[in-house]
Specification:
The chain is α+β, with helices and mostly antiparallel strands. Helix content is 35%, strand content 25%. Belongs to the KhpA RNA-binding protein family.
Length: 75
């Protein structure tokens, strides 16, 4: 899942080398923390959060096979 998120985000940003995805697994959920260069935060979030919502939709759809709830935090 981390590779999928990285693959989606890197073409969107100006600093693809600064894309970091970490996973934090708890008892009933998995949280992915996405960190990008400060100049690229707006590009990842998009106008009115449209790009962030689209990325989350893809991640949640892929992760629907898991028994745990999946979350994506953009930092």
């Amino acid at each position: 899942m981390e590779a999928l998120i990285t693959t989606i985000i890197q073409p969107l940003v100006d600093h693809p080398e600064d894309v970091i995805v970490t996973e934090n697994e708890e008892s009933n959920k998995i949280i992915y923390h996405l960190t990008v260069h400060p100049d690229d935060v707006g590009k990842v979030i998009g106008k009115n959060g449209r790009i962030a919502k689209s990325i989350r939709t893809v991640v949640y759809a892929i992760g629907s096979d898991e028994k745990k709830r999946i979350y994506l935090d953009i930092m």
